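Long-time lurker. I teach an intro course on protein structure, and each term I like to show students one example going from raw sequence to a predicted 3D structure in token notation. This year I'd like something fresh instead of my usual example. Would anyone be willing to generate the tokens for the chain below so I can use it in lecture? Attribution to the forum is fine with me.
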Amino acid sequence: MTGRRRAATPSHRPFAEPVRLDLSDPGTLRRLWDLQRASYAVEARLIGFDGIPPLHESLERLRACGESFLGVRDGLGLVGAVAWTRSQNGALDICRLVVHPDAHRRGVATALLDALDSIEPAELTVVSTGTANLPAVALYRRRGFLPVGERRIAPGVAVTLLDRRTHRQLPQGARI
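-- Reply from a regular --
Happy to contribute to a lecture. Here you go:
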């Protein structure tokens, strides 16, 4: 991925390629914290539940979360981020994917997931999202994720668990 991405309509600002975020930088940490609060406020409305942990996370807890981050900026600042960890079995766990409400439908989430797939290829990638967050469920399904379960987190509120399995291609002539 090179160059700058352009939004579908000229009224939207272009955004830069995803880059790693350094949460030890106080400014970056604050911008990420503000971004995730704005993003999770939208999800809270969609799923009818404002107890989403990152919505109430302190700056200190965010800094100490132990996740790796990629972010996307446009001319006004940080508009999207994705965070992940690796489990001991090598699975990639997408912990958070946040896009500022003003940047929805500009391809920010897709750019972040494309970059993550490129720098962190995995045979198994897992993610979860609010079951009632239909735009997020649809995004993950378009990217090859399949629902594998559901977990109740509060009365009337569920999270859908999704995973995507990719199989490495064997070299030509190789046998199992």
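Some talking points for your students: The two ends are 33 Å apart (CA to CA). The first strand starts at residue 19 and ends at 20.
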